[in-house]
Every structure is written in C-alpha cells, then in structure tokens.
Specification:
Number of helices: 21
Strand order of the largest sheet: 4-5-15-10-11-14
Oligomer: single chain
Radius of gyration: 21 Å
Structural class: alpha/beta
Number of strands: 16
Strand content: 15-25%
Shape: globular
Length: about 475
C-alpha cells in the first residue's frame, strides 16, 4: 500500500515516508491508495487485547513496517503509562456506550495515537535512512500539545515545538504545557486563536525555503497533528475494539450496525471512525457534534463550507476551530478520489474562506448527520447526566451527549467518544453543576470533593511542578520563534 496526496500534486510514498513527512509536499494530506482487505470474526476479536487489535490494524495500514517493528511500537505505546490495561474504558448507558478515551498520560483521547506516533516516526526514520533530527511542529487547541509532548518528550532524534492560544485553553491544559519537563520540548503561547496557529504551521510545513534551512542544519519537519496519517490510523483501533466488546457482552449481534457520535473540531477523530467502516466496522450513521463554532454543522446541512464567521472561545476548547483540516480527507473519498476537485475546494477556502460541494460529492455524505450545542446546552448536559445517570462528563463529551439526544436514534446502539476526563476542565464542570469554581489545584480538589470522585493520578502533583515555558508571541512571530528555538 502507498499513500498519495489529496491534492494530486505529490508522488505516492510508502507508509513510513508519509509518517515522516506529516503533510504532502503539495500541501495536501496523505491518504491510502486502497483500503486493506480485512475480515472480522467479531466474537473472536472480542477475546483479543487492545494491543493485539492495534497490531493487526497497524500491520494493515503500515505495510512497509515489519511485524517486529509494529510489535515494538505497540509495546511502547500501550503499556504501563495507561491507567487501565484495556486502554479504553467502556461505560454503558442503555443503548449508548461511552468510549472512555482519556485513561492515558494526559487524560485526553489524543494519547491513544500520540503514544504510538513517536515510535512510528523514529522507526520510519531508521527505515528511510534518515539521520536528521525530526522537528515536530504542532498547533494545539489544548490537548494535542500536551499529548504530543508526553509522547515525544525526550525521544531520541526529535525536537517538539508547540504553539497554543493564550486564551481558551483550560487551567489544567495550560499547566500541563507550561510545566512540560522534556528537554526537547519548546512551548509558546500565541495571542491569536487555534486557527491562526494551525494555518501558520501548515504553511511552514510546506515552506520550501524553511525546509532547506532545516536541511542545512540536519533537521526536517514533521507534524503530530491529525494531519499526520500516523496520528489517524491508531485512532481507528478504539472503534473496532469497542464494537467487538459490545458483541462480546451481548449488547449487540455481530454485524449489527451502530451509530457513532463524536465531538469534533479538526475532524480527525470521526474520520478515524469512517476509515474503520471502510475496513469492516458496521456503522449506520456518523454524527458530527460541534460547539458554537458550528462550521461543520452548517456544512453538512447545506453543502457549503464557510469559515467567515466570528470565532468563539468556549468551554470545549479542542473544538474551537473554524478550519477542520481532516475534512479534506473525507471529501477526497466522497468525490471519488478526485484530487483536482479537492484542490479547487482548498484553493477557494484559502482565497475566500468558503467553498460549495458538487451535488454528487454531497450526495456521498448522506451517512453523516451534524448538530451543535451552545454553552447553556453543554452545561445542561453535564448537570443532567450527573444528576440522572451519576456519570460525569467533560464539556466536549457533553457536546456529543446533547447532540445525541437531539437525534432520532435513541433505540439505535451508539458509540459515543468520551474524549477527555472531566478533570481536564474542572472549572467548567463545576460551574455546570451549580458551583462557584476556583482555579488551580484548589479547583481540582473542589471537583473531587463535590462529586466524590478521585483525582486522576496523572494530575495529582501537577501544580507542584515549576513553570518552565512562559513565552507569549503574536501569530506573525511564529517563524521567528521557530528559528530562535532551533538554530
């Protein structure tokens, strides 16, 4: 299997090269040239460990990695750093199954992929005989930065540079980033929003002059954002795993279709579910759940993408995004792999901030539904679920819960991605529960005391760590900052 660019202007490359590059030279995103042929005996899969299933999926999509190399990646990615040996927790609520994706080192779903990506990448470097230092350039709305640094921290042959919005991340996210201890980590706040950072990062990843400058210093760029195919493939595994466990627990019959509800901003998490369907996961409907930055809701309801709207800072910052990068990959497949069409959309988005789908491409998105939750609805979902179900949601998962309740699928078995621990957003959760939240470590303790839940081990001593990263810049200073950090 090889990988090609969604925009058609770059040569096909093996998986290891796609992982190393992060983004294709023409600015497009790498997609597989074909879907691997995979068959599923769900009763048998339900007996396998998460690690065994991850190995099978990785082997199918990263074909130029040896079995031994993939086994080593899986062993390092899914070991003692997880608070549950199952990696993913499942919480059943009638026909709804919460996939708890937050039991990793930084309490967010991005750990699932970002514990694997560093080892996929360093293995790829060895396979491609790359001796240069790999510079991981990352824009984050909060969780990617912390998870990427947890994964890449002090990994040989790497440096990681993270840019995050000064306003909009939670107290916990900011503390995690500012106290990052890895010697190879460089963390900077920007006065703009996530879209400003992501736009700059994507431009710089494809900047030929900067690439040459890095080459002169024996360095090369890659990305830990979900634009990297090495981020996306590992996220497929938890959908397949959760489905197999529903079969094992006799919640559904083997082959029975489920709905998938995902709170999304950059569209990577729900795209992974779409990829999983292409290799055999039985899915009836994909439900795209957004917050007040509801550009995706409007897109799926109208066929027109329009980022020209006010950017809103919400209690669900990982979804505070107006340009959803991974949507490009979905449109590539919906268009019948028409790279010329996709390039036209992306050119229009760059020039005017909007594009409109062709009728045929839009028709191929019929299995997607979309909805959104405003701030009051997020708070209500947290409060109602805690009161009625004795289950605590973070704001992102609450968005998905609210949108799920608006859909006509209450009797349909549904997987809902619970993407972060409520302890990553204690102030927002406490406020939703009618409390007057305080900041810092006291806010974490306040949530534990009020809800009679345990503070996750991962953050019990977080506020005792020294602040190491204090720099704040304007978005137009990102290039200068990169040069200062690296050269």
């Amino acid at each position: 299997m090889e990988y090609v660019s969604t925009r058609g202007g770059a040569p096909a490359v093996p998986a290891s090269q796609a992982v190393l590059n992060g983004i294709a030279p023409d600015g497009g995103l790498y997609v597989p040239t074909e879907w691997p042929k995979m068959t599923w005996d769900w009763s048998q899969v339900g007996q396998q460990s998460y690690q065994a299933l991850a190995k099978r999926v990785f082997a199918a999509f990263f074909e130029d990695y040896t079995d031994a190399e993939i086994q080593a990646v899986v062993d390092q990615a899914y070991g003692d750093q997880w608070q549950t040996p199952d990696i993913v927790g499942l919480h059943q609520d009638e026909n709804l199954t919460y996939m708890e994706l937050f039991h990793g080192p930084t309490l967010a779903f991005k750990d699932v992929a970002l514990q694997a990506l560093p080892f996929l990448m360093t293995t790829a470097a060895a396979k491609q005989a790359v001796n240069d230092k790999i510079v991981i350039l990352t824009a984050t709305s909060g969780d990617t930065g912390t998870a990427a640094m947890s994964g890449f921290g002090n990994v040989n042959q790497t440096e990681i540079i993270v840019f995050y919005p000064q306003v909009g991340v939670s107290d916990i996210q900011r503390q995690q980033m500012q106290t990052e201890r890895a010697d190879n980590a460089h963390v900077t706040a920007i006065t703009g929003n996530f879209d400003d950072a992501q736009r700059a990062v994507k431009d710089l990843l494809g900047n030929p002059e900067l690439r040459q400058e890095l080459k002169d210093h024996r360095m090369r760029f890659s990305s830990a954002n979900s634009i990297n195919i090495g981020r996306l493939i590992p996220q497929m595994v938890y959908y397949l795993y959760a489905y197999s466990r529903l079969v094992k627990n006799q919640e559904i019959e083997a082959g029975q279709a489920v709905d998938v509800v995902v709170p999304t901003g950059n569209f990577g998490d729900i795209l992974a579910a779409y990829y999983a369907k292409q290799v055999g996961l039985p899915v009836k409907t994909f439900v795209v759940a957004s917050n007040e930055n509801n550009v995706l809701t409007d897109f799926f309801n109208t066929g027109t993408y329009d980022r020209n709207r006010d950017f809103k800072v919400t209690s669900a910052p990982a979804m505070d995004i107006l340009v959803s990068s991974n949507l490009e990959r979905l449109l590539y497949f919906a268009s019948g792999r028409n790279s010329e069409e996709i390039k036209g959309y992306m050119d229009d988005l760059q020039k005017t901030g909007t594009y409109e789908l062709t009728a045929s491409t839009r028709a191929n998105l019929a299995e997607f539904k979309a909805g959104f939750a405003d701030e009051d609805q997020i708070a209500a979902a947290i409060a109602q679920t805690y009161q009625d179900r004795h289950y605590l949601l973070d704001p992102h998962t609450a968005v998905a819960r609210h949108v799920y309740q608006q859909m006509d699928s209450a009797t349909q078995p549904t997987l809902l991605a619970a993407t972060a621990s409520p302890y990553k957003f204690p102030q927002a959760v406490l406020k939703a529960l009618g409390q007057e939240p305080v900041g810092g470590a006291a806010g974490v303790q306040q949530l534990a005391d009020f809800t009679k839940t345990a503070i996750p081990e991962q953050i019990q001593h977080l506020y005792q760590l020294p602040i190491r990263h204090k720099k704040i810049i304007k978005p137009n200073q990102i290039l200068t900052t990169i040069r200062e950090e690296l050269f």
